Amino acid sequence: MSKLPKILMFAWLAFPAIAMAHEHGHMSEGVTSRGMGKRARPALAVSATIDSKNQLWLAKVENQKILVLHSADNGQHFSSPVAVNAEPENIGAEGENRPKIAVTRNGTLHLTWTLLLPQPYTGEIRYSRSIDGGKTFSAPITLNDDKRLTSHRFDALISDGGDKLAVVWLDGRDRDAAKEKGETFSGVSVYMARSDDGGVSFHANRKLAEHTCECCRTALTWTADGPVALWRNLYGTNTRDFALANPDSGKVRRLADDEWSIDACPHHGGWIATGDNDTLHAVWYTQGKNRQGLFYRRVKGDRMSAPMAFGNPLAQAGHATVAAEGNIVLIAWREFDGQSYGAMTLLSKDGGVIWSEPRRIATTDDAADYPLPLIHNGQMHVVWNTLREGVRVIRLD
Question: The whole model's pTM is what?
Answer without folding.
Answer: 0.90
